[in-house]
Write a structure and sequence with these properties.
Length: about 425
């Protein structure tokens, strides 16, 4: 039985880290730290669960289910698998994630260095490059990816280490009442769990191509690579979140996420930091944009059975991304919040259940858990949109853990139990 050596596992682990750590992820940990202040450790724990633990678990879950997004989602039902996979691709594609790369590239990479360039021109250039690199058979993006991650890591490590050795301030009491649940909920914005359901298949295929065909060995290999990626993400996220917490005595609570990250960097490294950060972030955003655009192109081309070819989908995705990116990073994050409140709990419960799939005889509980979760997550999402959910919303707030944002847990468990009982009753009735 073939096994990968330590070097090969390390390479895949770094690749998985790079997949999850897009430049946009730079802006969330500092803002959470700023909000949490002296309670930053509890906030970090919550953020680490949704920003690190669940995405790694998502990759493992896909491997356990059979190695693809469909193998995981089909356990609920084929129609659900099609709808939910399309929804995931739209969210990590032209609706949220791809436009956010363009907006982040402008606000961190362009605006501080070239204030005369507006967001429209910037987005046209950025997504013009995205379109060219996605459609053309060029190796430029591979070169960028190979050298970008080490450079970005060195830059971030320099900021973190210097920020710890010479703190810009001290964490203060910000009167945050629920730092853990705030960190957990804000971790939704990384969208890494949704991406993990897609990336899982890519990692499994890569391992198979390296000759690892035995399922147990595939799982062990993915677990090792996931540990490497998780440690890397933990160090980076922990350091950035602490810098934000230290800045709670320096920066106002209302400061925008992009401005906070930029100002922390300038405070620690001076104007040189602004230049280097801008270059690294722009390159990272471009790489992420190209990768996601290509993924979306291949996905919709395949499910339409080439009725819509790859190039057409990529062009449409790029045009939509240009339009949405111009509303700005903060507006995209605000727009994404209610949508992710609906979708993320469903993804979480499916990934967690699937980890124990070998112990589950009645596969219909996947449907029950999904329905139970959706009943609450939909109301939470509508409430976040400002919709008056009346007595239903009030009832949900009485559920266990609802005050911490986890009201969907009890209905998910109830859905599992009811589905199992109904199945058993039907079996006994026809026995």
């Amino acid at each position: 039985m073939k096994k990968l050596n330590s070097k090969e596992i390390l390479v895949i682990g770094f690749a998985l880290f790079a997949m999850f750590f897009g430049a946009g992820n730079l802006i969330f940990p500092p803002s959470i730290g700023l909000l949490a202040g002296e309670k930053w450790k509890a906030a970090l724990l919550g953020f680490s669960l949704t920003g690190i633990g669940l995405p790694i678990l998502g990759v493992l879950s896909v491997a356990i289910s059979g190695g693809s997004i469909n193998s995981l989602l089909n356990k609920v039902g084929p129609k659900f698998a099609l709808i939910f996979s399309i929804l995931i691709m739209v969210l990590i594609g032209p609706l949220l994630a791809i436009p956010r790369t363009g907006a982040t590239a402008f606000e961190i990479g362009i605006q501080p260095l070239f204030p005369s360039i507006g967001p429209v021109i910037s987005s046209l250039i950025f997504f013009g490059l995205t379109l060219f690199l996605t459609i053309s058979s060029t190796s430029i993006i591979d070169v960028i990816g190979k050298f970008l991650t080490p450079i970005l890591l060195i830059m971030i490590s320099t900021i973190i280490i210097k920020g710890i050795l010479n703190p810009i301030g001290v964490p203060i009491d910000t009167n945050m009442t629920q730092p853990f649940s705030t960190g957990f909920g804000d971790g939704y914005q990384t969208m890494d769990l949704l991406a993990a359901i897609v990336f899982g298949g890519i990692i499994v295929d890569d391992i198979k191509n390296k000759g690892i065909t035995e399922k147990n060995e595939q799982f062990k290999t993915i677990a090792k690579t996931g540990l490497i990626a998780g440690i890397g993400l933990g160090i980076v996220y922990g350091g950035l979140l602490y810098l934000g917490a230290a800045g709670s005595s320096v920066f106002p609570q209302g400061i925008e996420k992009v401005s906070l990250t930029t100002n922390i960097t300038i405070t620690i490294l001076g104007d040189l930091g602004k230049i280097v950060l801008g270059i690294c972030v722009y390159s990272a955003c471009l790489t992420t944009s190209v990768g996601l655009t290509a993924t979306v192109g291949h996905f919709f081309s395949n499910i339409s059975k080439e009725k819509f070819n790859y190039k057409t989908i990529v062009i449409i995705s790029t045009i939509v991304s240009i339009i949405i990116s111009n509303i700005g990073v903060e507006s995209i994050i605000t727009f994404a919040d209610p949508i992710l409140k609906i979708v993320y709990p469903i993804a979480i419960i499916l990934v967690i259940i699937n980890v124990f799939d070998n112990l589950i005889e009645n596969k219909k509980i996947y449907l029950g858990a999904t329905i139970g979760t959706f009943c609450v997550s939909l109301v939470d999402g509508l409430s976040a949109m400002g919709v008056n959910t009346s007595f239903i919303g009030e009832f949900i707030q009485t559920l266990p853990f609802a005050d911490s944002g986890f009201g969907w847990i009890f209905p998910a468990i109830l859905g599992i139990i009811l589905t199992h009982l109904i199945t058993k009753l039907k079996e006994n009735a026809f026995a």
